[in-house]
Design goal:
This protein has helices at 2-9, 19-27, 83-88, 109-118, 120-157; strands at 29-34, 39-41, 49-55, 58-63, 69-75, 80-81, 95-98, 102-108. With 159 residues, the protein is an alpha+beta fold. The chain has a single domain, classed as Jelly Rolls (Sandwich), CATH 2.60.120.10. A four-stranded antiparallel β-sheet has the order 1-8-3-6. Strand 4 and strand 5 form a beta hairpin. The longest helix is centred in the C-terminal third of the chain and has 38 residues, at 120-157. The protein is globular and about 60 Å long. It starts with a helix and ends with a helix.
């Protein structure tokens, strides 16, 4: 557990935690390994873990109606994913696939729920960082959407 505590201390997600809070969070955090090509989770899967990439890369993708997968994001060391299902306990909205050998730190949603009851201050600090991460993703998506609309609007204007 000392190894996980040291790793967590290096991550922005856990930067606000005291040493004692960090030790508690380390107790519910596990390491997982996924070889190249493995699905970490799939769309519609009812699994509530949140993941922080220690090493490797992950692509997050969605299937088109014809089944073809479209990559939404490529994630790398230090990136967080799986946050939406972790927070709202709904099925996964995308698929996450290891595009190299990947090591992640994972926190299960049920374990985090217990943390909320036993250490609400620590849980609030972690949740604040998760929400900031989601906010950043939404902001990036909005920017890309505006770029796409601007591009399409410009094309229609000149045709």
């Amino acid at each position: 557990m000392a190894d996980i505590t040291r790793i967590l201390r290096e991550q922005r997600l856990f930067a606000d935690l005291t040493d004692s809070e960090l030790a508690v969070v380390a107790g519910i955090t596990g390491k997982r390994h996924f070889p190249l090509g493995d699905a970490i989770f799939e769309t519609s899967q009812e699994e509530r873990s949140i993941f922080l990439i220690r090493s490797g890369e992950v692509k997050v993708c969605m299937a088109a109606p014809d089944g073809e997968l479209f990559t939404l994001r490529i994630l790398k060391e230090g990136d967080l994913f799986g946050a939406m299902s972790f927070i709202d306990a709904t099925p996964r909205s995308a698929t996450a696939i290891a595009i190299s050998d990947v090591e992640v730190l994972a926190i299960d949603g049920a374990d985090f729920d217990k943390l909320i009851d036993t250490h609400p201050g620590a849980a609030a600090k972690v949740m604040r960082q998760i929400i900031e991460s989601i906010h950043s993703i939404v902001h990036q998506m909005n920017s890309r959407y505006i770029e796409m609309i601007t591009y399409m609007w410009g094309r229609k204007r000149f045709t």
